[in-house]
Design goal:
Number of strands: 10
Distance between the termini: 21 Å
Strand order of the largest sheet: 1-2-4-3-5-6-9-10
CATH architecture: 3-Layer(aba) Sandwich
CATH superfamily: Alpha/Beta hydrolase fold, catalytic domain
Strand content: 15-25%
Shape: globular
Structural class: alpha/beta
CATH class: Alpha Beta
Largest sheet: 8 strands, mixed
Number of helices: 8
Length: about 250
């Protein structure tokens, strides 16, 4: 099913780029990427999206500010700014669709938790980065370069795209007290078997979701963002099962 380019603006007036498919449906899944990713970056998302469309769901995947085809300066980028981007996406779809589900990966799990579950019927959270220790580790070697240049370089592992991140993200990653809102919609976690999060970290993240309608599935042999065709199918299977269950 063909995706159409769409554009909408966040609260800062930045134009965000998205791909919308099957807009005739009354149920939509918003699909969010991780930091340094973009709407077509991940093989498992590229596989999942048309599979969701085949099941009758509309899909919207979009680029966060300063990522992909969206506007913005990466030096000013923060995880908190992605909340505003997500809320702009919600505003874009909420009057067109009766029910909204969300699929997140990596950083965008935190995007969801910053917003909470208002207007969201269910969520699938894939390999999330929600904990201070995950983000502190990500910037532990950045200070010297940041002090010298006013930014530090970070590269997308798949295609080596360069990002210049600044002090706002560095300070945010070192802040132990990032504020999350309540997520109480049905939520499924998908963890890669060899994802970097320990079992204790996974439990902490699982406990952040305030509902009895939640579970965890493990993808055999799967790492944080790399996936095989078989793992793509497994991620899609578990995601579609969840969305069909709670977006009736």
């Amino acid at each position: 099913m063909k995706e159409q380019e769409v554009f909408f603006k966040n609260s800062k007036g930045q134009k965000l780029a998205g791909l919308l498919a099957n807009p005739e449906s009354d149920k939509i899944i918003i699909i969010m990427s991780g930091m340094r990713g973009h709407k077509t970056y991940y093989d498992f998302i590229n596989y999942l999206t048309p599979e969701l469309n085949k099941q009758g769901f509309a899909t919207l995947r979009f680029d966060f500010n300063s990522h992909g085809e969206s506007e913005g300066n990466s030096i000013e980028f923060t995880r908190a700014s992605t909340r505003k981007d997500f809320e702009a996406a919600l505003d874009f779809v909420k009057n067109k669709f009766s029910k909204i589900g969300v699929f997140t990966t990596s950083m965008s799990g935190a995007t969801l938790l910053m917003h909470g579950s208002k207007n969201i019927y269910c969520a699938v959270i894939h390999n999330p980065a929600l904990l201070h220790e995950q983000w502190h580790f990500a910037v532990k070697d950045a200070k010297e370069e940041l002090d010298k240049k006013g930014y530090y370089l970070s590269y997308a592992k798949r295609d080596n795209r360069e990002f210049k991140f600044g002090k706002p993200l560095y300070d945010e990653c070192n802040n132990k007290f990032m504020k999350f809102s309540e997520v109480n919609c049905p939520t499924r976690f998908l963890f890669g078997e060899i994802e970097h999060a320990t079992q204790d970290m996974r439990k902490k993240m699982f406990d952040m979701i305030n509902t009895n309608n939640k579970d965890i599935k493990t993808i055999k042999g799967h790492r944080h963002w790399r996936s095989t065709p078989e793992q793509d199918k497994e991620i899609a299977k578990y995601s579609i099962d969840w969305f069909k269950r709670y977006l009736k």
